[in-house]
Design brief:
Length: about 90
């Protein structure tokens, strides 16, 4: 069964809202990983020696950011809300 289908069906929640929140959290998780484990192709050879500890890490064994975000959402670990009309900038309107 798809993790989206596992969301509590008793909750009156817009599925598109849930997907948007999950996607935003997944991007945050992905960004955190990118900062923690820099991509080797963007690092010069001199800097590469500094990151040699990452050579033996099997990144394919990591859970996918989307899966983590869906679990967090399902377990109520993600808090979100909306800005009031007064807080919106002209770009958001």
């Amino acid at each position: 069964m798809s993790p989206i289908n596992q969301l509590d069906k008793n909750e009156k929640q817009d599925i598109f809202e849930a997907i948007t929140v999950i996607a935003k959290r997944a991007r945050q998780i992905n960004q955190e990983r990118a900062e923690k484990y820099p991509i080797k192709s963007y690092i010069s050879d001199e800097e590469g020696e500094e990151y040699s500890e990452y050579k033996n890490i099997d990144f394919s064994s990591f859970d996918k950011p989307t899966t983590i975000a869906m679990e967090e959402f399902k377990n109520g670990k993600i808090k979100f809300g909306y800005k009031s009309d007064k807080e919106k900038t002209t770009e958001e309107i």
